[in-house]
Amino acid sequence: MRRFVFFTDLDHCLPAQGGSLTDHGRSALDALKSFHIPVVLLSGKTRAEIEPLRERLRHTDPFIVENGAAVFIPPQTFDFPLERSRRRAAYDVIELGTPYAMLRDVLKQIEDAVNTPLHGFGDLSLDDIMRATGLSRQEALRAKLREYDEPFLMNGPASLLEEIRRQIAARGLRCTRGERFFHLTGGNDASRAADILLRCYRRKWQGLDRAADVETVVIGDSMSHLPLRANADRLVLLQKPDGSYDTDGDRPDCIRAPGIECAGWSEAVLDLLQNAA
Fold it and tell me: Which parts of the chain span the membrane according to its record (predicted)?
């Protein structure tokens, strides 16, 4: 029996905060559910940001937060103990990132070392975050509830950034650059988190049928944000808002789906299901 696991970027594929799911998008999600295909959401967002989106999407499968920092798995998803997991609220959680309080301490150490103010989310007011991101007050409040990733602002020359990166690396941590903020994180990444879930699904299904063939489908609009992009069975790239495609590290067999965000995602999913039937 052929089984599928869909890994989808949430941030640019399905509705953002306040957005509504189109009828086409609902049809695609319902079709996946009818085929018992798990849809794993991947995001740089916090758990607090993702939970209301999951409720609107009626999503019941696992999800990965803060760029691979933790995997949140609803109970009864798997019928065997999960390694390195612990029960938190309504989930079994596998944590791969560095605790937020530790990141905050490190940011202050580096601020002292480079003698330059570094303004992290923990230093910013809700109004500051709203101005910097365009989020509503409620959205900014959820974005501020961070667990594994400290976004920060820096003003200074390129040489200062090089020293900050060196200080971060010396402490075994990472610095990445987003659209508006730099991000101080642990060594987590989305591919590692996705691979853990994929192994769990393989174990689950091969326990029911040793001949089960598990295929991975990865969907998003940015190569750099997609996990398992080197060895996914099907890699689907959506158009960016300007109609272009990301070419960073493009795979020759990558499927270029027409359409942007939710419309493109829905069309790609329905097309894949039709061809796989």
Answer: none
